[in-house]
Description:
By secondary structure, this protein is α+β, with helices and mostly antiparallel strands. Helix content is about 40%, strand content about 25%. It has a 5-stranded mixed β-sheet, covered by helices on one side. β2 (about 150-165) and β3 form a beta hairpin. The N and C termini lie close together (about 10 Å).
Amino acid sequence: xxxxxxxxLSPVLAQNLPNFGGANVVRIPxxxxxxxxxxxxxxxxxxxxxxxxxxxxxxxxxxxxxxxAITAILVGLCLAGLxxxxxxxxxxxxxxxxxxxxxxxxxxxAGDSASLSPLLRSDVIVRPxxxxxxxxxxxxxxxxxxxxAVNDSSILSLAATIDxxxxxxxxxHLRVTPQESLYAVPxxxxxxxxxxxxxxxxxxAWLLTQIECQQIDGVGNPSTINP
Length: 227
């Protein structure tokens, strides 16, 4: 995927080039707060439950109502526990597609086209490079093992939004360091992956239909790149 390694001579030079870090990248809409705190990021809501319980228990203790204080603590702990259970045993569609996105990145950077292939729908396209499924898999199996091989990579951010019951977009901010010594400068890029529900409940319930490059560090227009 990272066909966009730019020829920087030093990090200092790179910092002075335009379009760095994706400041102008349009972000996808965030998940609804309640659903996010209930199922995906439970710790904040759990902390609120416990703090509220402790505060209520303190007030009741000051009023010499020990039974109410104990009840407040128990209720707070129960609510926090239920929140943790819901987050542990419920996997949302956004979480599922975020995990699939991580797999796409891992397989691509490893040059593993065989593992990547089942995640791609037959009509998948990579924009703005106009790569078809066949050309994408060929690039992964060849160029990601040679020209664009990477030493290390990191996911700086990963978000997902549900556009419809059968369509999800994930947005990833990726940073890689190429193996090529001349260009071995960490390079960031932003991508949007579009997932379509294909086989509800099956092993390939979601398939990738589009990969869009939004931004590449130091590159004004990604469409000028010929992968």
